[in-house]
Structure formats: C-alpha cells, structure tokens
Amino acid sequence: VNSRRKVKHRDEFLFQHFVGCSPRSTQLTHLLHRLESALKDHFQLREMEVPTSEERLRWSLNRFLAAAAKKQFPARIVIVLDAVNRLRGESSAADTLHWLPTDLPQGVRIIVSTVELEQSGSLHNNLDEGSRLHRTYTELRRRKCPTIRLQPLSIEVRHLIIGSFLQLNQQALQSLEQAQQFRIVTAKASSQPLFLRTILHALRLGFELSDTSIDQQIDTCLAAETPSELISRVLDTCSGYVDSTANKNPGDRTVIRFFSRVLTALFTSRHGLSDTEMWGIVELATGEPLLSEQRECIRRILRDFTFSVNGLRSFSHVDYSTVVSNEYISAPEVHVRAHHLMARFFGKLPPCARKLDALPYHLEVSGTWPRLRAALVNVQMFHLWWTSAHKTEFLNLWASLTARANPGAPIRKLVTGEFNETMRCAQPPRPCLDLVEEYVRSVDEYKFSYSPSDDGL
Fold this sequence. Notes:
Layout: H1 2-7, E1 13-18, H2 28-42, H3 54-71, E2 77-82, E3 108-112, H4 135-142, H5 155-168, H6 170-173, H7 178-185, H8 193-209, H9 214-222, H10 227-244, H11 258-268, H12 275-286, H13 292-302, E4 306-309, E5 312-315, H14 318-329, H15 332-347, H16 353-366, H17 369-377, H18 379-385, H19 391-401, H20 435-450
Parallel strand pairs: 1-2, 2-3
Antiparallel strand pairs: 4-5
Helix pairs in contact: 2-3, 8-9, 8-10, 10-13, 10-14, 11-12, 11-14, 15-16, 16-17
C-alpha cells in the first residue's frame, strides 16, 4: 500500500483500515466513520453529513461511494480492509457483512481479508472436526467474490524472513548458526508467520535476558506445535526473567508473579494501559512496588508483544490476548475480580478524561452499579461527561440504568464494550434508577460539601 501511494494517480483515493491495530479499530462504527469522513474530505462532498450512529453509517455508505464516484470519471477508489472477521457491531453481528455494499459504483474496488474457518486449522476436502466456515468467508463466497488464498510460508520465504531479522538484530543474534537456522525453517510449525515471528523474538529475548544456550532455547520453542502453545511457553519463560530480577531476602521464599499481573491488567483494560498505569495496578494488586530492574525487564518483553497508541499499550496480536486469557485468567470469577481491581485503580484518579474512558467499563463489567451511578452523577465530573468525546456514552449509560426491564435481568450486553461469556459471573442485574432523583440528591450533597456560589452551581 505504501508503495502504491508513491506512484498512485493524483485523483486516486486509497483507503486502508487494519482491524485490530488499535482497540477502536475493531468497532464497525469507527471503520465506517473513518471511511465516510475520508471520502467526504478527498472528494469535497461538503453537502453530505457523516452520521454518528452505526445504523445511519451503514445506510449512508452507498451514498458516499456513489457521490464520490460521480465526482470524477473514471473513478479511482480503492478501499483495503484487513481482518473483517474481527469487526464488531453495536446492534448486530458485523461478520454477516450486512454493511458491505453488494453493488459498487463503476471504478470502486473494495479488497478485504478474512479467515476461512471459525477455528484454526486448514481446509482440505473436508472440514476438520469441530471447525466450520467463518460467516464472513461464507458471505463472500455467496456473493461470488474473487478470492486469493494465502499459502503457508515456503522454506525459501522463511530463510528470507530470518535473514532480514538477523540483519536488524546483528548484535543480539549474531551467534545464530546456519544449522540452527535450518532447524527453525524446517520445523513444520514455522510455516505459520506468527510462529516464526514469535520464535525469533523469543530467541532475541533469550540472548538479552538469559544465559541459556541458543540450542536449548530452540529445543524449548520447537517442542511447541502451534503458535498458541509457543506463545504460552515464551510468556512463562518471560515471567521467569522478570522474577529473577527481584531482590529477595535469602530466607524469603515468597514468589510474586509480577509479570502475570501485568498481562492480566493488559487483557482486562478497555483501550490499553500506559506504563505508569501498569506499575500502579501491579502495586495495588501485590502491595509491593516494582523495582526499576523489573520495570525495564517488563518494558523490554512487552516491546515484542504489544503496540502503543497514544501512550497506551495493547497486545499486538489476538493470539497473544487469547493465550493470556486461557493461561492467566481461565475462569470468569478471576476475570471479574481483575475488573474490580482495575475499577479500584481508576477510581482513585481525579476527574479527568482518562478516568471517564476507563472507569465506567470496569464498573459495568463487574456489575458495581452504585459506583457507576456515583461516577455519572458526580457534579465535578459532569463538565467532562458533557463533552463531544463522552456525551454519547454518558447518555447511553443513563439509558441502560433507567430501563424498566432491568430488575432481575442478567447482564447480556455492555454500553462501554463487548460482553462475552468470560465475563459472566453472577453479577447483580442493572438497577432501574430515577434520573431526576439521582441528580437532585447529588446536587444537594455537592452543595453541602462545597457550598458553591449560585453562578458556580
């Protein structure tokens, strides 16, 4: 895409969206708003308004494409959407591709990528037992879309990838011999890009943080048969790297799994965490601050497993997140307990945009309705709530807490995120609150505590 941008026609519109590259990128609303805003700006569609709701964005996409195609002839509009199987809608499943136009204006091309199966595996003449075609792939086949199947990495390509990696990491992996490289490229699992990427990162980490020989590290990695199994082994090894940096008293046999706390916090977060937030959450969970050596070790490890958007770290691949869920959380009660901890941490922050972004999510997942109510009626936070960035969510949260059907009904969906079965843990049902009564009480408490002037109030 970057190469195409350099040589593209001056009138060509080239749009790309990588689902999963940031927490918001998985939201269908975010994708459609980005696309329609880009079309409006590029083709100067001043008379057209970009909607804000998902339903209206879905209906308006055809209009924007048609209007853009009429602006110039021949139209040159190319839209690239990666991993559409991971898109999530607000009111309905995005993986049905109901939002993707079936008929495109002349000169408009949409290129999408998706997976073939619901579960990992390869499709031959018959499906693997327990596997089924993914809904996105089924829908694209129904529409008779031309397809290109990505094949496993060839031996030659694996050699090229390792060669490029070694050039970028000559100091760390200069001792990786030809025989060792051969063992890696001839392993069946290394035909999968994620497996090869993970083993190379693991060897680089091992060189920097461990005294274990390269051959032993390769043996450990190649004992895994799938990327998920390899990721699990590597994370366990990394946990040992972090624990080994702790200065303990000779007689103290207590082992605090600091790294597992960091991984759990990252998985539980709404839009990722800053380094400072990670250290604070771990300290709140363990009662002990992280040593500077441990922090540097964790930062070095997370460089290979996370990406940062606006200073907030998130896992850089869905398989990393899945392994952390299976290995370090595993049960709904552990997951919900982690959300309680996160709510305690963000609840301590003074009124700020970051607090409004994170706290309601953790309170909603954990079913802590009194504290969520308190966050919504807090007079000092109201001026932040009533801004363009938070107003819609503020109103939707109140709508969810004032519905008459709430009492006795279990949680099935969230306002602040996506609810799944790993979060179901006998949380109390949402209350049905009286909006006016709650604000009258909050204002009275504020007047009693702060005695504001009439103008200030």
